[in-house]
Amino acid sequence: MSQDDIDASKAPLIDHLIELRGRLIKSLIAIAIAFVVCFYFASDIFNILVVPYERAAGATKTIELIYTAPQEFFFTQLKLALFGALFLAFPVLAVQIYMFVAPGLYRNERGAFLPFLVATPILFMIGAMLVYFLVMPLAMNFFLGMEQDGGAGKASIQLLPRVSEYLGLIMVLIFAFGIVFQLPVILTLMARVELLTAADLKRRRKYAVVIAFILAAVLTPPDPISQISLAVPAMLLYEISIIAVRYVERSKARKAAEAAEAETADDAD
């Protein structure tokens, strides 16, 4: 980037604040529109989220969820609408973030930043799909296994989850897995700004394993299936991050070597 390009990209603080306000307003409008749409279809979305429970229970069992306060399901629908709105509006949010920070980046930095912006929602969706198709059915199967049929000397114990508690469980799992699946993006970005290296990640692997299980215990329900289902992917993502960071280091070393050769050739001329 030339000095003229740098000077042209400079703007007073008030201009940056005005632009930031405009980006925030556009983002909030996108969330608000998505919220209205999701609230209209809140019951349908909730029924879709109940599918893992149905898969765990089997076709022969009738699924029953309850609410114990008159306003409980209404507030559950509000939470569900906001949850869906953040998903639907994320592309708009990502574009607004990129358009705000892009003028302050060099041309090559813009090209490097864009793939991470694209990878973030994709990795989040992979984590959410893992919860929906694997982790949640396994967790509900574990909880359903605690039921007890009534009989002589035995009380009948049946699982009747509240709508708010079930939604809270699946939302926590989706967000936990979605955040953990951002690990390659975060570590690769840190490598690009030279805050860590592949050697650092290898050296701290044993600590990463301990942290993965601690986070799994904190972010998931207190059942071993959910915790292991989060800890194992986290460790795999850590190994993938090491490969990605090594690739970044090799790419930077190759570009540095090419720049050095070009400078040597210029000096020779």
From the structure above, extract its key features.
11 helices, 79% helix, 269 residues
Please provide a written account of the structure.
There is one protein chain. The protein is mainly α and 269 residues long. It has helices spanning 3-9, 13-40, 42-49, 51-57, 72-101, 107-144, 163-180, 183-192, 198-203, 205-219, 224-268. The protein is flat, with a radius of gyration of 24 Å. Residues 5-9 have low confidence and may be disordered.
For the record, give the distance between the C-alpha atoms at the N and C termini, rounded to a whole number.
Answer: 24 Å
List SSEs in N-to-C order: HHHHHHHHHHH
Strand content: under 5%
Q: What is the arithmetic mean of pLDDT?
A: 84
Shape: flat
Strand count, sense and closure of the main sheet? none
Quantity of strands, as a count: 0
Please work out how many helical segments DSSP would assign.
11
Radius of gyration over alpha carbons? Answer: 24 Å
Structure classification:
mainly alpha
- Poorly predicted runs are 5-9
Bin the helical content: over 70%
